[in-house]
Amino acid sequence: MRHFDLSPLYRSTVGFDRLFSMMDQMANVENGTGGYPPYNIERTGENAYRITMAIAGFGESDLTIEVKENTLSIHGEKAAKEGEERGDVLYRGIAERSFDRRFQLADHVIVRGAALENGLLHVDLVREIPEALKPRTIEITTNTDEAKVIDQKAA
């Protein structure tokens, strides 16, 4: 597949930066650079989500999880252990390469925690909408006395 350079469009447009960034990300996924490690995103409740990543061979000390400006970044890098002798590998099927996976979080989504279990990294997310932004019902009242007073003043 061909790669399209969108950088000239960045210079000639205002306000479409996010659109072009999303197109760049899609191109990276199609080219195969965005496929490791594999992951699932699941809904675990009405406002709860979980990202599960398959990261066999990585330990807690090899992982870094960071949230900054609605972007969740998960970085993994295997640290070379000194003095450890490894035999000649005849076939390498378990990937131990470094990775950097980013997820764009919606507004009011926060990370509750992360757990590493059986080679799977689970990151729990919750959407917490502030009270001021939640929909509320407004009670309708009819006060006929006030309406009469207003009519009398106007007349």
What does it look like?
The mean pLDDT is 78. This protein has 2 domains: 1-34; 37-81 and 89-135, Immunoglobulin-like (Sandwich). By secondary structure, the chain is α+β, with helices and mostly antiparallel strands. It starts with 6 loop residues before the first helix and ends with a helix. It has 3 helices and 7 strands. Helices cover 20% and strands 30% of the residues. The strands form 2 sheets. Strands 1-2-7-6 form a 4-stranded antiparallel β-sheet, with no helix packed on it. A 3-stranded antiparallel β-sheet has the order 3-4-5, with no helix packed on it. It is elongated and about 90 Å long.
Task: Describe the protein's topology.
Elements: H1 7-12, H2 17-30, E1 39-43, E2 48-54, E3 63-68, E4 71-76, E5 99-104, E6 109-117, E7 120-127, H3 144-154
